[in-house]
């Protein structure tokens, strides 16, 4: 399709004439079929809700089709309306627009739905099994039309994927405000999600799926590298020189694990039950070899350990079987984790062993109660075999996918004598005290020209900035800074880009501001094209999640969500191009509130002012909260921040003497 026709399709939005009904594409990965939990009256509401996007003359044709989708898939996706053009990462000028800010958002939406990026593209799911960009294709078409029409005097409101409309605003307001899954608390249980999603009134936006800031598995690979690297440092004197890392999940962000392990210098085996997912990661170079036979895999592991070969294996099979085989063969596992989508355990996020992938998907639809029983028994078995490895010295951590939480709900042997979890969250042991407390988090950027040359230039700019900041960095953060410099120096050879020309780099407030400012200056001087900066929601300030991002907060406030709400409000009036706030993400619906932003850098003074104001707030808001929770690193970081910015005045805690408190 040429650009003129592409523009025409975008501008028309929902077509006046019904497009032909499309065949179900069996060649790509799809979301598992599921059984909806709507009553007969609620089915009628779901159909009315879907049909309101279309003129009455089309209702007679569409009502039967939408009822079939509801019954077969558990919700209405409106497959007929998926556009015929290829949705892919493009450059900013490849979209019709009156606002560069709006065009940048169109680019980011397209990247999230690019087939090389999205986990289940036909269902508008980017990652995590159910992390949605939109609920249906009508919402996508209407949103793209609004973005093509809007000016910098308007703001588009997105209501769990639904484009509520364009509202008058001003050039300093966000161009888009996004909410996903925001529910009255009493209606925020997993069963409520299934119901209200089937009704078409809410969606699970995960983190960067529904906020258009996903950049493929690269988006988590740096954080995973930091985690595995520091886990190896913890075990430096306790295990092998060349360590073995075992985990599972290659579908979405979990695909980062083998690449991260290899960068950190470990042998890894990542199990995956979905053949299409494991082949996709192999084709993209994120795993080196695929094994389907456990005996063959064991031989390969032994050979790699003997030869000290850093290699990433993908095992097409169930991770429980893998753990059990390793135990039987007396192969010591240094580090273990899990990154299946256990926030969504009973709808394809986690697969039990003893039955095939195909049989499991059939049960999800035909007998969900039996599937739930099998999942919970599998979790018990999973925990039992990990406990055996742990007794031999394996360091196991929860990687923020609700493994510990769902295992405890399944009554697995996952709790210690005090009632807490046997194993730490990676945030408790590593990411929290080493990174978040000091303001280091997953800063990212996307080159809107979509040129490799622009990305390479930005990598060099970021490296130069970090080296300069390292010279004056405090001793507390020297190692973190050096790790980040090593990361950015090696990114090109690690071949991390999937989809748009983008990059992730852990940086603190000073680093983010300095790098973004250097980018904006380079854009002004014509060295590179415009850039979108943003971050993962999994960050210092953006997310309140007691079992992940805020799990290293111990004053009781880890169960509150003020920080994430404050953050998105603060970002919105400090210059963000778009902002988002979500219920759910990572550990599951009802378990976390998280938010994010995107900010266009175009070389203007406005962009300079916005990046300085917004990035300072976006990071230091979280450090201030962590400081008040008595986190020592955060207290030190906040004192340093107040020295640097005289307008910053933060309430610091007074620490109670332990000897005094013992008597009470």
Summarize it.
The chain is α/β, with parallel strands linked by helices. Helix content is 44%, strand content 12%.
Keywords:
nine-stranded mixed β-sheet; Urocanase fold; 3 domains; alpha/beta; 44% helix; six-stranded parallel β-sheet; Rossmann fold; 664 residues
General description of the model:
By secondary structure, the chain is an alpha/beta fold. The protein folds into three domains: 3-127 and 134-199, no CATH class; 218-423, Rossmann fold (3-Layer(aba) Sandwich), CATH 3.40.50.10730; 432-537 and 597-660, Urocanase superfamily (Urocanase fold, 3-Layer(aba) Sandwich), CATH 3.40.1770.10. Helix content is 44%, strand content 12%. The protein has 23 helices and 17 strands. The chain has helices spanning 3-12, 40-51, 59-73, 100-113, 137-149, 190-199, 218-234, 256-263, 275-283, 294-307, 319-328, 345-349, 357-366, 368-391, 403-409, 426-434, 452-470, 478-494, 509-524, 562-572, 605-628, 632-644, 658-661; strands spanning 125-127, 131-132, 154-159, 162-168, 176-180, 244-248, 267-272, 289-291, 312-316, 335-336, 395-396, 441-447, 502-507, 531-535, 543-544, 578-583, 593-601. The strands form three sheets. Strands 3, 4, 5, 12, 13, 14, 15, 16 and 17 form a nine-stranded mixed sheet that branches. Strands 8-9-7-6-10-11 form a six-stranded parallel sheet, sandwiched between helices. Strands 1-2 form a two-stranded antiparallel ribbon. The relative contact order is 0.10.
Overall outline:
globular
What's the alpha carbon Rg, rounded to whole Å? 24 Å
| Percent helix range | 40-55%
Mean pLDDT: 94
The number of helical elements comes to 23
Largest sheet: 9 strands, mixed
Report the top-level CATH class of the largest domain.
Answer: Alpha Beta
Span from first to last CA? 74 Å
According to CATH, what is the topology of the largest domain? Rossmann fold
Q: Tell me the count of domains.
A: 3
Proportion of strand residues: 5-15%
What is the SS-derived class?
A: alpha/beta
Total beta strand runs: 17
Can you say what the CATH homologous superfamily of the largest domain is?
A: Urocanase like domains
CATH architecture of the largest domain: 3-Layer(aba) Sandwich
Point out poorly predicted stretches: none
